[in-house]
């Protein structure tokens, strides 16, 4: 994943993907309810080459920097019936700045959300068709002086939706997304 070639083993002098490219891959997979399988190209010593190991560490550090401390988060069991709109609001305490949210379902009960939107200060800013284990929504702009963020679920199956995490985040430092 980290190198620009498709070889099974580490090849000398191969360009590595930039950190921005790796973050995009992370958001396109993990952020869309997928699994990111990382290929560690082994060098002739039987180890991951130091340059590749450094790039993987930078990816992990960036993910932890971006997502370890939300400005607000909550979870809930939302009960409803067909044609019911469910809403979950984040408990914001100040005028915050944000550019992304994470929504996660507790999938031991199944993937129940079929369509949802995110509202920032009462304005719809994103619409999606599923959540699943994890959905990372990167907004097209940074919202400032935010007083409310809501998850609005307008299509689901079953009589309850199990949201294990709904969290908002500030823009990531030193990352071009």
Automatic annotation (TrEMBL):
Residues passing through the membrane, by range: none
MF GO annotations: alpha-L-fucosidase activity
InterPro entries recorded: GH, Glyco_hydro_29
A GO-annotated cellular component: lysosome
Protein name as annotated: Uncharacterized protein
Origin superkingdom: Eukaryota
Record organism: Reticulomyxa filosa
GO biological process entries: fucose metabolic process; glycoside catabolic process
């Amino acid at each position: 994943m980290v190198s620009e070639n498709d070889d099974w083993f580490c090849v000398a002098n191969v360009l590595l993907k930039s950190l921005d490219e790796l973050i995009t891959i992370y958001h396109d997979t993990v952020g869309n309810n997928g699994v990111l399988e990382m290929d560690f190209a082994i060098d002739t010593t039987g180890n991951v080459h130091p340059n590749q190991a450094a790039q993987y560490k930078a990816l992990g550090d960036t993910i932890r920097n971006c997502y370890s401390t939300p400005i607000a988060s909550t979870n809930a069991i939302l009960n409803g019936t067909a044609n019911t709109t469910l809403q979950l609001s984040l408990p914001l305490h100040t005028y915050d700045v944000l550019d992304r949210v994470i929504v996660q379902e507790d999938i031991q009960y199944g993937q129940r959300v079929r369509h949802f939107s995110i509202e920032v200060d009462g304005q719809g800013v994103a619409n999606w068709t599923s959540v699943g284990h994890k959905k990372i929504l990167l907004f097209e702009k940074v919202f400032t002086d935010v007083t409310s963020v809501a998850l609005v679920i307008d299509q689901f199956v079953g009589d309850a939706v199990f949201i294990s995490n709904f969290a908002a985040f500030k823009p990531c430092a030193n990352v071009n997304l």
